[in-house]
Write a structure and sequence with these properties.
Number of helices: 33
Helix content: 25-40%
CATH superfamily of the largest domain: P-loop containing nucleotide triphosphate hydrolases
Number of strands: 25
CATH class of the largest domain: Alpha Beta
Number of domains: 4
Bound molecules: adenosine-5'-triphosphate
Strand content: 5-15%
Radius of gyration: 38 Å
Shape: elongated
Length: 887
C-alpha cells in the first residue's frame, strides 16, 4: 500500500512533468526543422504564419509547452509586423512573411540549416553579454520591434498583464528595491536561465532572490510571459510607465524566447595588407558561417577569426542574412586603398616599386641620394607625387623633397611652405642641390607685402601663407609642406590657408619627422592633404581611429583606436616612414647642417649696431688695440642680433617634436635669453655656464640624461664642451659660432660618444650680415687643415658648397683677415671669452637695448599696413585641445 504524496512531492512531480513536456515540445520543433517537407521552409512558415500555429505543435494554451513554442505562437500572432528587422533567429525564421519575401533561396537554405541558439547557459551568457556597440540584450531584443510600423495599430497587450497560463504555473512578483527591482518566486529552472541572461542580474544569497536594474525590466517580463510555468505579477504602477515603454513595452508581441536573446554586433578590422579580422562576439550561426570561408584562420591569442581580403565581400553578404548578427564591413576608404587585394587583381602581395626615371633631374642631386633616399623618391613617383614623407628627423627629407619636386619640374612654379625659421635654409638647399636653377628664380617671401608667385620656386612661412593666399589666381600644381604636422589643427589660420591649396595641387609632398605627436586626430588633415577623398567626414575618421566618445559638450576625439589598421592604411596609400635605426648603416655618424637663420628677424637697431661695428673694424689708422676692440664689439653685436632667430628656431624644433637637444651658445646674453624663453614656455631645461660649480654640472647633466620627455640643455660653448655626457640626446644646435673648431668638435661630442646608438645631427645657426659671414669660412678653413693633417674626419665645407661666404669686397676681406689674425694670436680665446662674459648690450654705445627686448621686431609680424600682429605662434605649448568638435 502506497503512502499518499506529500505536497512537496506533488510539486516536484509536477515540475518534472512540465520539464518533460517542454523537452518533448522542443524535440518536436527540432524535428520540424530537420524534416524537408515540414514547416521549416520560409515559404511554408509564411503561410503558416497567416493561418496559425503549425499542426504538429500544441494548440491548447492551457497545456504546458516550452518557452520556444510559446514564442513561436507569439510570433505567429505578430506576423503582420512586416517591416521590422527581426531581433533574432526565431522571430525571423518563424514569422514575418514580409521579411521572408526578400530572402533568396541560398539565404533560405542558410537560415534553414542554422541550428538553435546555444543552450549551454555559459555560452548563452557569453553571447548575451553587452556587445561592442554597447547594446545589451534588453535593448537589442526588443528595441527594434518597439516602434516599427508593423506593430502600430495593434493593441499591445499590457506588459505587466499575466497571460492566461496553465493553472499549475508558478506565481511570483516583482518588487521595487531602490533603483532596482527584485523577483520573488520559488525555484524555476527556466526562469533562472532567463535571469542569467540579463546583464544587470544580481543574486542576493541572504534573501535568495535575484534583482535587476529597471533597464532589464521589459526584457524580463516579456521572457517570463513566454514561460508557461511562470506567472509574474508586474511591478506596481509599472504597466504604463515610461520605464516599461522605454524597455520595449509595446513590442511584447514579438518577444523572443529566452535562448535567442543574444544579438551580436561587431566590425571588420584590417590586420595586414592581405587579411582582415572579424571583431565580434560569439554567435553560433556566425561561427558556422566563418567555418565556410576558405581562408579562415583563428587567432588563439586574440580569439578572433580572420580571413583573406578577397573573401571580405562574400563574408559581409552572407552575414547580412543572419538577422541576429551585425558585422560592419571595412570602411570604403580601406576597400578603395586595398582594392587590389580585395579584388585579387594583384597576384603578389607586395609589388616592387618601380625605379623612377630621374634623368631630367640635376645629376648632382641624383648622384648624392643615399639608397634609402632614392627609394623614397621612387615611392613618391609611384604615388604620383602625393605623399607624406615621414622619415625620422635628420634623414634628409629636404633632399628627397627637392628631388621629387624636380621630377615634376615641368609643372612648376613650385610652392614651398616651411616654418619661418628655416626659409633661408631651404633656399640654400635648392641652390646646393639644383645647380640648374638660377638663384634669381628663387623667391623667399619675407613680408606680407611680397608676392607669393614671384619666382619659379616660392618659399613662404606658414604664417605669411595665410596672409598671402588671396593673391593666388592660379593654383600651384606642385606644393611642398615642410613640418606638415604644423597643419594638425584644422581650426588654425595656417591650416585653413594650406588645405585648399593641397586639394587642387597635382603633387603634394608633405614632410614631417613627427606627423602626430600625441594622437591620431592630428593625422587627419595630413591624410586628406595627400588623399582628399579619404574619410570625407572627420567624424567617420574619429569614430574609427580616435575612439570618438560623445560627451555632454560634444564629441571627444582625443583617444585612439584601430591603430594597427591606421598604420596599414597610411603605409599603403599615404605615408613613407623610415626610422634612423632602419637606415643607420647608410648614415654617417654625424650629420651637420648649416641653418641660415632669418635675417629679417634681426631688428633695425641691431642691424645699425652691426654696421657700426663692422665700419669701426675697417677704419683706417686704427691701432691694433682699437681694431681688436672693434672686432669684439662686432662679435658681441652678432650674438645680440641673432637672439630672436635663435629662439624662433628652438621653439620650432620643439614644436616639430624634437624631444631632447643641446643648445650651445657663447654669450651670456644669448644663454640667458634662451633660458628665459624656455622658462616662459615651461620647457624643462638645464643650464651650465661658467658660473656653474663642478658638483652642480654633474648633477644637472644627470638630470638631463634622465628626463623622460622633452628637455633642452643650454650650455656654454666654453664651459661645457668637455667632460660631460649627454648621450640621451641626438641633436646639437650651435646658436653661435666659435672661432676655435676644436672647441666646436669637442662640444659636438657631448652627444656623439659611447652610449650613443644613433646618428647625431648637428645644426649650426648662421646669420647673414653678421660676424658669422667671417667666422663660418674661417672655421671651415681650419677644419680642412685639420682634416688634411689627419686630425679630423670632419669636412665642414661639404655642407656649404652653395654658400658663397668669401667676399670680393676689399672691406669684407679686411674684416675676414682681422678675424683670422686675432684668432691665431696667443690668448685670443681668453680675450673673446671675457668680452662675451662682460658684454652688456645696454651699456655699449649705440646699443639696441638689453638682451631680448627687441625680440618681437620681426618683419614677418608686420602686416602690409604696418601694424604688428599679435598672435600665438607656438601652438605646441599653448593649445593641445584641438579637434574637440561641437555636436
Ligand atoms: N644624400 C645626402 N648627401 C649629403 N648631405 C645630406 C644627404 N642627405 C641629407 N644630408 C644632409 O643631412 C642634413 C639633414 O638633412 P635634412 O635637414 O633634410 O633632414 P630632415 O629629415 O629634414 O630632418 P628634420 O626633420 O630634422 O628637419 C642636412 O645637412 C643635409 O644636407
Amino acid at each position: 500500500m502506497s503512502l499518499p504524496l506529500t505536497e512537496e512531492q506533488r510539486k516536484k512531480i509536477e515540475e518534472n512533468r512540465q520539464k518533460a513536456l517542454a523537452r518533448r515540445a522542443e524535440k518536436l520543433l527540432a524535428e520540424q526543422h530537420q524534416s524537408p517537407g515540414s514547416g521549416s521552409s520560409i515559404a511554408t512558415n509564411s503561410s503558416q504564419s497567416k493561418q496559425g500555429p503549425p499542426p504538429n505543435l500544441p494548440r491548447d494554451p492551457s497545456k504546458p509547452v516550452n518557452h520556444g513554442v510559446v514564442f513561436l505562437q507569439q510570433n505567429l500572432n505578430s506576423s503582420s509586423n512586416g517591416n521590422q528587422r527581426p531581433p533574432n533567429f526565431h522571430s525571423f525564421h518563424l514569422s514575418s512573411p514580409g521579411q521572408a519575401k526578400g530572402i533568396g533561396k541560398r539565404q533560405e537554405d542558410e537560415i534553414k540549416s542554422t541550428p538553435f541558439p546555444p543552450r549551454d547557459p555559459g555560452v548563452e551568457a557569453k553571447a548575451a553579454r553587452p556587445c561592442t556597440s554597447g547594446q545589451n540584450i534588453s535593448d537589442t531584443n526588443c528595441g527594434s520591434g518597439s516602434a516599427t510600423p508593423g506593430t502600430e495599430g495593434r493593441r499591445p497587450q499590457k506588459l505587466g498583464a499575466s497571460l492566461h497560463k496553465a493553472g499549475s504555473s508558478q506565481k511570483g512578483m516583482c518588487i521595487r528595491s531602490g533603483g532596482r527591482f527584485q523577483v520573488k518566486i520559488g525555484y524555476n529552472a527556466e526562469l533562472i536561465t532567463v535571469f542569467k541572461r540579463l546583464p544587470s542580474r544580481s543574486y542576493d544569497p541572504a534573501t535568495k532572490t535575484w534583482n535587476f536594474s529597471m533597464t532589464d525590466y521589459g526584457a524580463l517580463m516579456r521572457a517570463a510571459q513566454s514561460l508557461p510555468t511562470v506567472t509574474l505579477e508586474p511591478l506596481e504602477g509599472a504597466e504604463d510607465s515610461r520605464e516599461s515603454l522605454s524597455t520595449g513595452g509595446v513590442a511584447h508581441t514579438c518577444l523572443p524566447s529566452a535562448p535567442s536573446l543574444a544579438f551580436v554586433k561587431g566590425q571588420c578590422v584590417l590586420i595586414s595588407r592581405a587579411r582582415f579580422e572579424a571583431d565580434i562576439g560569439y554567435s553560433e550561426d556566425l561561427m558556422a558561417l566563418f567555418k565556410q570561408m576558405e581562408s579562415r584562420s583563428y587567432d588563439v591569442k586574440t580569439r578572433k577569426w580572420n580571413f583573406l581580403l578577397e573573401e571580405h565581400n562574400k563574408l559581409i553578404q552572407s552575414v547580412r542574412c543572419l538577422p541576429q548578427v551585425q558585422l560592419d564591413p571595412l570602411p570604403t576608404t580601406l576597400t578603395l586603398a586595398f582594392a587590389s587585394q580585395l579584388e585579387k587583381t594583384s597576384p603578389c602581395l607586395t609589388e616592387p616599386i618601380p625605379e623612377a626615371d630621374l634623368s631630367g633631374v640635376d645629376p648632382k642631386l641624383v648622384s648624392n641620394l643615399l639608397p634609402f633616399q632614392r627609394a623614397g623618391v621612387n615611392f613618391a613617383v609611384a604615388k604620383r607625387g602625393r605623399l607624406l614623407l615621414a622619415d625620422d628627423m635628420g634623414l634628409g627629407k629636404t633632399i628627397q623633397a627637392i628631388c621629387i619636386a624636380a621630377f615634376y619640374r615641368k609643372e612648376w612654379p613650385l610652392l614651398v611652405v616651411v616654418p619661418s625659421s628655416v626659409r633661408f635654409t631651404w633656399e640654400q638647399a635648392f641652390l646646393q642641390w639644383l645647380p640648374s636653377l638660377s638663384p634669381d628664380r628663387i623667391n623667399v617671401v619675407v613680408t606680407g607685402k611680397d608676392r607669393l608667385t614671384a619666382g619659379l620656386v616660392n618659399i613662404v612661412s606658414f604664417d605669411l601663407l595665410s596672409k598671402l593666399e588671396k593673391q593666388l589666381k592660379t593654383p600651384f600644381k606642385v606644393v611642398i609642406i615642410d613640418e606638415s604636422h604644423f597643419l594638425k589643427n584644422i581650426k588654425t589660420a595656417r591650416c585653413r590657408a594650406a588645405m585648399p591649396l593641397l586639394k587642387v595641387a597635382k603633387r603634394v609632398i608633405l614632410l614631417s619627422g613627427t606627423p602626430a605627436m600625441s594622437r591620431p586626430a592630428e593625422l587627419y588633415t595630413q591624410i586628406i592633404g595627400v588623399r582628399p577623398t579619404f574619410f570625407p567626414q572627420f567624424h567617420a575618421f574619429g569614430l574609427r581611429y580616435c575612439d570618438a566618445k560623445r560627451q555632454p559638450w560634444g564629441w571627444d576625439y582625443s583617444g585612439s583606436s584601430n591603430l594597427g589598421e591606421l598604420k596599414l592604411l597610411l603605409e599603403e596609400a599615404v605615408m613613407l616612414r623610415r626610422l634612423k635605426c632602419d637606415v643607420l648603416a647608410q648614415l654617417p655618424p654625424k650629420q651637420r647642417k648649416m641653418v641660415v637663420i632669418a635675417p629679417a628677424r634681426i631688428s633695425t637697431k641691431a642691424r645699425a649696431a652691426l654696421a657700426a661695428a663692422a665700419k669701426e673694424m675697417t677704419t683706417m689708422n686704427n691701432t691694433k688695440r682699437q681694431q681688436k676692440e672693434a672686432l669684439l664689439l662686432f662679435f658681441n653685436r652678432t650674438a645680440e642680433a641673432k637672439i630672436p632667430s635663435v629662439i624662433e628656431y628652438i621653439l620650432d624644433l620643439l614644436e616639430s617634436g624634437r624631444e631632447k637637444f643641446l643648445v650651445f651658445a657663447h654669450h651670456k646674453v644669448v644663454l640667458s635669453a634662451i633660458t628665459r624663453e624656455l622658462e616662459r614656455k615651461q620647457v624643462p631645461h638645464i643650464r651650465i655656464d661658467g658660473s656653474t660649480s663642478s658638483a652642480d654640472r654633474e648633477d644637472l647633466c644627470q638630470q638631463f640624461q634622465l628626463f623622460e620627455k622633452h628637455a633642452v640643455a643650454v650650455l656654454s660653448i666654453t664651459a661645457a664642451n668637455m667632460g660631460l655626457t649627454f648621450s640621451s640626446a641626438d641633436l646639437v644646435v650651435f646658436a653661435e659660432l666659435f672661432w676655435n673648431p676644436g672647441v666646436l668638435l669637442q662640444a659636438e661630442d657631448r652627444v656623439h660618444r659611447i652610449g650613443q646608438a644613433s646618428s647625431v645631427s648637428i645644426h649650426y645657426l648662421v646669420a647673414r650680415g653678421t660676424a658669422d659671414d667671417y667666422l663660418w669660412p674661417l672655421i671651415q678653413e681650419k677644419i680642412k687643415v685639420l682634416g688634411e693633417a689627419g686630425l679630423s674626419e670632419t669636412n665642414f665645407s661639404e655642407m656649404t658648397e652653395a654658400t658663397n661666404y668669401f667676399y670680393e669686397d676689399p672691406k669684407q676681406q679686411k674684416i675676414y683677415d682681422l678675424f683670422q689674425q686675432s684668432f691665431e694670436e696667443e690668448g685670443s680665446d681668453m680675450e673673446l671669452l671675457e668680452a662675451a662674459e662682460s658684454f652688456d648690450p645696454g651699456s655699449a654705445s649705440g646699443a639696441p637695448g638689453s638682451d631680448s627686448q627687441d625680440l618681437g621686431d620681426s618683419v614677418d609680424e608686420i602686416t602690409s599696413t604696418g601694424s604688428p600682429v599679435k598672435k600665438r605662434r607656438f601652438e605646441f605649448f599653448d593649445n593641445f585641445d584641438s579637434f574637440m568638435f561641437p555636436l
